[in-house]
Amino acid sequence: MDTEISALTTVFTEFYYWLTVPLMFLIHVGFCMYEVGASRQKNAMHTLLKNSMIIPLVTITFFFFGWWIYWAFPNGPFITGGIDFAAGAANTAWSETMGPNLGDRITGVFWAAFLLFSWTAASIVSGAVIERIRLSGFWIIAVMIGSFAWVVDAAWGWHSGGWMVKILGYHDAYASGVIHAIAGGCALGVLVVLGPRIGKFGLGGKIRNIPQQNPWLVCVGLFLIYTGFWGFYVACNVPLISPEGIGGNITGATFTATNIYLAPTTLGAITVNFLMSLSGGMLIGYMVSKGEAFWTYSGGLAGIITASAGNDLYHPIQAMVIGGMGTYAAYKLHYWVEAKFKIDDAVGAVAVHGYAGFIGVVICGFVLWGYPSSPFDGYATINPLGQFIGAIIMFFVLGFVPGWIAAKILSGLGMLRIPKEVEIAGLDMTETNLAAAELAEIEAAAKSEA
Fold first, then answer.
1. What is the tally of structural domains in the chain?
2. CA quadruple 410, 414, 418, 424: dihedral positive or negative?
């Protein structure tokens, strides 16, 4: 910090990213409440513990290798170059920037912001598989997507030097594909192997609605996710950078805020678009579900996710319309896939995140056709083909396929599905702990001694 301006820039940037972390923490709180509300009472604690343990497991693994992957793999590798060991070296667990030193005040808070994205990716899968997956099996899948799969796709398509941005013109400013499509695809891959909850489908394939334990908790959880999404959007930006810091390829000589690709943007623009896409999603969710509360609130989330790919450049009315389109498609696809393939997605996570994210990336290619994907010279412009290929990579190549493979391996090892008798009795009494039974024994002993 050689000058007063550089000192203020550093302190402001440090505080900026630090503030996004507690905001995004609310996303995880919301997912926990949302999933517990959607679970039946006999499985509530199992559901909560399953998602809560994402925090230590993904945090530790992301610290040791996930963060390195983001910096080392933007080239593919071997598509636009090899593994970037130099960039990776500064972001290893043992590098100076990852310790409490005065040489770098930014890496720690920037790392934490990305870590919260990792939690989100794993939590999306968590909601889809409630009430029948083993804790150990899910935690392995959580580490796989949270500290590996989504970080690879971030390096490819959410890095200023990512090969998908350079060659395909891939644009996904607020992670329609980079987090949501990949997590939804992974969840679908796991569900194909995991199978439906007992009783979900009757004779002849009749679909039974398994009621949520606490719809109020689901509603509150979704609103907390909305709130945390503010931090999510803000963390996808670089708050203050000079044109020289970008390489002199942008117009102007003053400091500016940028998106993740280092293209200029403003918090004002994305604030308006966030609210418009949320509103478009909620309206269509209410209409298409005929007033069902669950899909009204889930529709708001689907609307945000659909528009997120281009919400740095969309007009607010475009954001609203695109959010509504994605919500309508996600709702219809959820029930079509459920009926056609007997997929039991307990909270609609594949639809709200996966289908909406995929659709949002594709729509972005048409609406923003010809816009620069990056401020750097020589990069491909945004185009429909590049976005469609990008959506395939996110949802299927890095999402569905790793999820399916991991689930098949875990299933073969007997580590994926809860036994039938345990699922019927309830996961809290058997898989998580026997606290209730022990308490009953203590009370009975106390009475006999009295």
1. 1
2. positive
Buried b / exposed e over 166-198, threshold 16 CB at 10 Å, is: bbbbbbbbbbbbbbbbbbbbbbbbbbbbbbbbe
Buried b (16+ CB within 10 A) or exposed e, 386-420: bbbbbbbbbbbbbbbebbbebbeebbeeebbbbee
Note the pLDDT tens digit of each residue in 248-289.
Answer: 555 555 567 889 998 888 899 899 999 999 999 999 999 999
What sections of 39-95 are H helices per DSSP? 44-52, 54-61, 67-72, 85-89
The CATH number that applies at residue 149 is 1.10.3430.10
Residue 3 per-residue DSSP state: S
Tell me how far apart the 2 most distant CA atoms of the chain are, in Å: 84
Q: What is the DSSP letter of 296?
A: H
Structure tokens at 370: 């010809």
Query: Is the residue at 448 inside a domain?
Result: no
Residue type present at position 324: G
* DSSP codes, 20-42: HHHHHHHHHHHHHHHHHHHS-GG
Q: Which of 58, 28, 191 is nearest to 123 (CA)?
A: 28
State whether residue 241 is helix, strand or coil.
strand
Examine residue 251 and state whether it is found in any structural domain, yes or no. Answer: no
- Please check whether residue 249 lies inside any domain of the structure: no
Rg (CA), the chain: 22
Give the model confidence (pLDDT) of 40-82 as tens digits: 999 999 999 999 999 999 999 999 999 999 999 999 989 999 9
103 three-state secondary structure: coil
Which pairing describes strands 256-258 and 238-241: parallel, antiparallel, or unpaired?
Answer: antiparallel
Burial call 293-327: b when 16+ CB within 10 Å, e when fewer: bbbbbbbbbbbbbbbbbbbbbbebebbbbbbbbbb
Whole-prediction pTM value?
Answer: 0.94
Residue 164 · residue 397 · CB < 8 Å: no
Query: Residue type at 80?
Result: T
* Residue type for position 316: P
Evaluate whether residue 52 is within a structural domain. Answer: yes
How is residue 187 written in tokens?
A: 């969840």
Residue 330 domain boundaries: 4-240+261-438
Element (H, E) at 238: strand 238-241
Q: How far is CA 206 from CA 92, 338, 339, 342, 343, in A?
A: 52, 11, 8, 10, 13
Q: For the segment 355-378, what is each residue's pLDDT rounded down to a tens digit? A: 999 999 999 999 999 999 988 889
